[in-house]
């Protein structure tokens, strides 16, 4: 029951928090065109630029190959792992989730290697150590612990996956079912709920933030289109 | 007012990432603006009593007006990708000159006052109360950023430290600590029409003198017209072009191009400045007021085309912001813009960069050039930061790299690029941009020029390069002053149109 409540609260905080932040970003005007150039001159061009940023981390690749390798391993691993987890929330399980399933299992290794690399950089590189705050370490440790506890259940001590699925399906249909009381599972779920809660109030906001970054999402067409924010347009009434 | 003594960094073969040396640049304090200057700008002239409240209030105001600031302060994950990208960090090794650390000077305060995590668990997320010490650090380190945007190229979220620096300076102005250099210039340009504070009659004298020089030199009566109504082109150029060396050589170059192409043109005594320091201080209204003089001059003189001379940040403001600020451009459907569009010739981009104009004329055969007159030069080209990373030329992305190079190669026979990773979008700032081109920041300027000087030194050794071609007034002034400290001859610094002016055939 505690976990059922925990997940309802975490979900509400995550969803409401993210919706608020996204609403807040989109209502805040961008009064000047500031794409980092060379930039695309068309909207489809911007979509392509953004896709490269989000899928292959293009700017990071230009910047630092070590951060890129670890960062990409972690994020892509996490993506596969999350896709695999959809089977606990869908009935029947979507066909593509079945296809991803075996990859998702081993993607956890990618994810953990990536995270370990990123954590090591925080200790080993003097410049990165200098800029790291306690929360920077803790978020990495949190994600590592989520990955490790998940891997324990996948590769070492299986949990009762049937009951677990009944628990989550029950949550979704407001029909609370008992949760298997395996320690690794309880740890795993508590940490995931924590991650969900801190997502909208931490640097994890980089996930929605990247889509709102004016230097990446603006079209480079200032000579052809007049771009004026509402508060700036008001200045013109005084002329 | 001699700047403090400091060691000139040694030029090595490669641009090296230094070990951190904490606080080595904390002593740098640019001269604060005196009362008269701040009064004119509408800012207090000394630290106000309720500075803390006012600073937080201003930060909140800016967070509501600029999506860039809000997203950039939230999105950083401290990955470290930018830590070795800033020329000021590479040149000074002060960790607060790493882009992320410079941003964190503001981010720590943002988190404390504007985010739940920072309000509840300040230590955990590195949030801090705004103190006088932090304000002092802002003043030091937001005047060790040239707003060159190199970090924004390499950030996985496109976080642009320039936006943070601009906001930081704006907040500092609002609590009463403005920078003398930039704010004085903003006063001059708004009162007199140019950054140097040159009145109309002085300009006329200078232009007449230049006309005599050109005629004595070439035998051709090339004109430098001013305030001519009905001229086709209104040329807006940095006021350094009127008086400084080597800038004036480019002005002569533009005049020769217009003469050879038979294009009627004029300068304006009312808007005799392309530079717009409003950009550096992050004040939209100031930037708009400065830009508005150009629109007014264009309407007054009836020009059909507006062309911008060699100035980096001016081209950013002209290309990226003039349409927004003043309606110089296309696509506006408000009365404000429509009036101007009726006058401007739609067959040309508005505004147009002088390099776009000259390069087109050469390609279309409308002017002839003889590159062999420049055979004494082995040339390399420095991409100015604001042109490279904040604007474009021509119709294709990256035209800002190709068009100046095409133009240079049309007028010289010996050309070599500096190393990859130091040019084009990854170009290193000259070290003097963004309102730092003042003697009281000489240490920052010299050390910040280290990466560029290193790359330059390599092409000098390898290809005997003896001419550094530029399209920015600040770069020209900075390099003539700073490169000699690294053992280069200041005469190797010059404008692209200095080379064009020598090569263009005049009849």
TrEMBL record, chain A:
Family matches, as Gene3D superfamilies: Transmembrane di-heme cytochromes, Chain C (1.20.950.20)
Q: Which UniProt keywords apply?
A: Cell membrane, Electron transport, Membrane, Oxidoreductase, Transmembrane, Transmembrane helix, Transport
User: What top-level branch of life does the organism fall under?
Assistant: Bacteria
> Does this entry carry the keyword Nucleus?
no
Main location as per UniProt: membrane
> What topology does it adopt in the membrane?
Multi-pass membrane protein
Looking at the UniProt entry, the stretches that span the membrane are 6-23, 66-86, 106-125, 137-157, 185-206
- Name of the molecule in the record: Respiratory nitrate reductase subunit gamma
TrEMBL record, chain B:
Q: Which part of the chain is the 4Fe-4S ferredoxin-type domain?
A: 67-96
Q: Which domain of life is it from?
A: Bacteria
The protein's matches in InterPro entries, at most eight in alphabetical order, are given as: 4Fe4S_Fe-S-bd, 4Fe4S_Fe_S_CS, Cys_rich_dom, Helical_ferredxn
Residue ranges annotated as coiled coil are none
Identify the keywords attached in UniProt to this record, alphabetized.
4Fe-4S, Electron transport, Iron, Iron-sulfur, Metal-binding, Transport
Where would one find the signal peptide in this protein?
none
One matching Pfam family: Fer4_8
**Name of the protein described by the UniProt record:** (Fe-S)-binding protein
Query: What are the leading ranks of the lineage?
Result: Bacteria, Pseudomonadati, Pseudomonadota, Betaproteobacteria, Nitrosomonadales
């Amino acid at each position: 029951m505690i976990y059922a409540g925990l997940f309802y609260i975490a979900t509400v905080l995550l969803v409401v928090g993210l919706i608020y932040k996204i609403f807040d970003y989109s209502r805040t005007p961008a009064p000047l065109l500031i794409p980092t150039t060379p930039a695309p001159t068309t909207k489809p061009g911007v979509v392509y630029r953004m896709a490269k940023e989000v899928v292959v981390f293009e700017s990071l690749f230009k910047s630092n190959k070590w951060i890129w390798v670890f960062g990409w391993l972690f994020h892509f691993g996490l993506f596969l792992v999350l896709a695999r987890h959809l089977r606990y929330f869908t009935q029947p399980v979507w066909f593509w989730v079945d296809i991803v399933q075996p990859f998702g299992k081993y993607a956890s290794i990618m994810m953990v290697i990536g995270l370990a690399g990123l954590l090591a950089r925080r200790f080993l590189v003097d410049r990165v150590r200098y800029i790291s705050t306690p929360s920077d370490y803790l978020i990495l440790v949190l994600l590592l612990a989520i990955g490790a506890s998940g891997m324990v259940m996948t590769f070492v001590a299986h949990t009762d996956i049937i009951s677990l699925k009944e628990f989550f399906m029950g949550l979704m249909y407001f029909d609370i079912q008992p949760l298997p009381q395996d320690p690794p599972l309880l740890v795993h779920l508590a940490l995931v709920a924590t991650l969900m809660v801190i997502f909208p109030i931490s640097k994890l906001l980089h996930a929605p933030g990247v889509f709102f970054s004016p230097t990446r999402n603006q079209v480079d067409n200032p000579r052809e289109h007049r771009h004026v924010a509402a508060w700036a347009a008001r200045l013109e009434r005084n002329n | 007012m001699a700047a403090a003594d400091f060691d000139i960094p040694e030029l090595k073969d490669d641009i090296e990432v230094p070990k951190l040396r904490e606080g080595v640049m904390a002593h740098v304090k640019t001269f604060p603006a005196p009362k008269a200057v701040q009064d004119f700008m509408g800012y207090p002239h000394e630290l106000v009593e309720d500075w803390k409240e006012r600073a937080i209030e201003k930060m909140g105001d800016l967070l509501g007006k600029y999506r860039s600031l809000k997203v950039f302060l939230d999105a950083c994950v401290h990955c470290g990708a930018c830590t070795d990208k800033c020329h000021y960090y590479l040149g000074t090794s002060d960790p607060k000159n790493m882009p992320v650390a410079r941003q964190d000077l503001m981010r720590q305060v943002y988190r404390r006052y504007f985010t739940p995590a920072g309000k509840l668990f300040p230590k955990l997320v590195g949030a801090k109360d705004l103190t006088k010490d932090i304000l002092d650090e802002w003043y030091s380190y937001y005047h060790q950023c040239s707003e060159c945007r190199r970090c924004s190229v390499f950030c996985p979220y496109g976080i642009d430290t320039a936006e943070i620096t601009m906001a930081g300076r704006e907040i500092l102005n609002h609590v009463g600590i403005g920078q003398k250099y930039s704010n004085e210039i903003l006063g001059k340009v708004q009162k007199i029409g140019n950054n140097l504070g040159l009145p109309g009659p002085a300009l006329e004298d200078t232009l007449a003198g230049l006309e005599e020089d050109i005629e004595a030199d070439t035998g051709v009566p090339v004109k430098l017209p001013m305030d001519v109504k009905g001229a086709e082109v209104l040329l807006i150029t940095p006021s350094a072009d009127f008086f400084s060396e080597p800038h004036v050589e480019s002005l002569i170059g533009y005049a020769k191009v217009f003469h050879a192409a038979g294009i009627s043109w004029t300068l304006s005594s009312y808007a005799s400045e392309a530079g717009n320091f409003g950009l550096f201080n992050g004040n939209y209204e100031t930037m708009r007021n400065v830009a508005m003089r150009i629109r007014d001059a264009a309407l007054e003189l009836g020009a059909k085309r507006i062309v911008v001379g060699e100035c980096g940040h001016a081209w950013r403001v002209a290309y990226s912001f003039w349409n927004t600020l003043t309606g110089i451009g296309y696509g506006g459907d408000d009365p404000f813009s429509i009036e101007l569009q009726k006058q401007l010739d739609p067959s040309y981009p508005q505004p147009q960069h002088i390099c776009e104009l000259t390069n087109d004329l050469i390609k279309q055969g409308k002017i002839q050039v003889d590159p062999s007159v420049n055979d004494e030069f082995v040339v390399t080209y420095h991409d100015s930061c604001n042109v490279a990373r904040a604007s474009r030329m021509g119709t294709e992305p990256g035209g800002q790299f190709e068009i100046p190079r095409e133009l240079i190669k049309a007028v010289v026979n010996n050309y070599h690029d500096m190393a990859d990773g130091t040019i084009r979008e990854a170009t290193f700032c000259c070290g003097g941009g963004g309102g730092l081109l003042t003697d009281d920041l000489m240490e920052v300027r010299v050390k910040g020029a280290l990466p560029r000087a290193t790359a330059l030194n390599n092409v000098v050794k390898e290809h005997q390069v003896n001419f550094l071609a530029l399209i920015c007034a600040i770069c020209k002034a900075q390099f003539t002053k700073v490169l000699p400290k690294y053992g280069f001859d200041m005469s190797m610094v010059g404008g692209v149109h200095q080379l064009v002016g020598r090569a263009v055939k005049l009849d």
